[in-house]
Amino acid sequence: MTGFDFRNIAPTVKGNTQSAKTDFSPTFNRSAHFAPSLDTSIPTQASPSILNLPHITVNALWLSDIHLGCKDCKADYLLSLLATVRCQHLYLVGDIVDLWALKRKLHWPDSHNKVLQKIIELAQNGTQVIYLPGNHDELIKPYAELSLWNIKIARQHIHQGIGGHKLLMLHGDQFDADVCVGRFYAMLGDNLYDLLLFLNRNLHSLRERLGYPYWSLASYIKSRVGKAQVAIGRYRQAVIDYAQHFDVDGVICGHIHQPELSTHPRAAQYSTPEQRQIIYANDGDWVENCSLITETLAGELQLCRWNEQTLTLDILQSIALVQSPPDVNSTVHDKSAARRTNTAQELESRPRDVA
């Protein structure tokens, strides 16, 4: 078990990750049974403005609740993110394709098709892609432990980071029973959420025409509804309680469309002098928030929001898991080793599945 400095939790701070040069060329695309055919001969195209931007490089990237097939999915914004950010590990933490929405009404614009093409392209060109299905794409769950287009499917997974820290990943829909605040409030919440998304969609369209950046009305209102905050708190605690059964430093999930990066005390039976806290990280979504979790090349965990106007990552919160990148070539840990900044790129992360 490893110990890390959890004190460097920054309050909401905006900034950009460092850029680096990496190149992935498109090669392979195929069709999926739940969507119109993917064009195997035409690679995903990015606009010239995106292609000319310097790339942002991170070690790992977590995305959840994209909801391809839903009319509220911000697929265009996600495409610009995937064209700009490079990663060694891409984790898709559930509800990537919204089979529920597609069953109600077929909605599959070209941008949704291109997101799938881009993910397949990355998997075919060296990025490790692992897909953890959620409740909206639960039909894929029976195929756990199989690979499709170089994309591995798993129910849950442990990522081992640059500094040796271990992060459990799961979508989080298994905790719905722990979150329930009553049947009436659940039904009311579903109907109100549909209304919020309708208002959010129209407000965004108006703001876009006026040249304003994206802003989520739905998230703003949810943050001020008491019952919603109670449900979010119950969900967070249920996820943390579950994760503590594993020898991990933190847990990354999605499901509730509420981005968060925070640390919390462990239960006494799971606490050690090296690990008294556990990290809770929620990716958020690409319906309301356009948010994601990254692990930088320096071993820092970051909660970010994609800025569609500047095509950059706005850092909302961060946790420094390691004070300095580890030196894999030296067996003597002296002061000079702590000043080296390039050895993190030499390490290879070896994620493993959870039984």
Order of helices and strands: EHEHEHHEEEEEHHHHEEEEEEHE
Mean pLDDT: 77
What's the structural domain tally?
A: 1
Q: What is the global morphology?
A: globular
CATH superfamily: Metallo-dependent phosphatases
User: What is the CATH class name?
Assistant: Alpha Beta
Beta-strand share of residues:
15-25%
User: What is the CA-CA span between the terminal residues?
Assistant: 19 Å
CATH architecture: 4-Layer Sandwich
Q: What does this protein look like?
A:
The structure is a single chain. This protein is an alpha/beta fold and 355 residues long. The protein has a single domain (9-327), classed as Metallo-dependent phosphatases (Purple Acid Phosphatase, chain A, domain 2, 4-Layer Sandwich). Helices cover 26% and strands 21% of the residues. The protein contains 9 helices and 15 strands. The strands form 2 sheets. Strands 1-14-13-12-2-3-4-6-5 form a 9-stranded mixed sheet, with helices on one face. Helix 2 (75-84) runs parallel beside helix 4 (110-124). The chain starts with 8 loop residues before the first strand and ends with a strand. The model is unreliable at 1-51, 181-189 and 325-355 (pLDDT under 50).
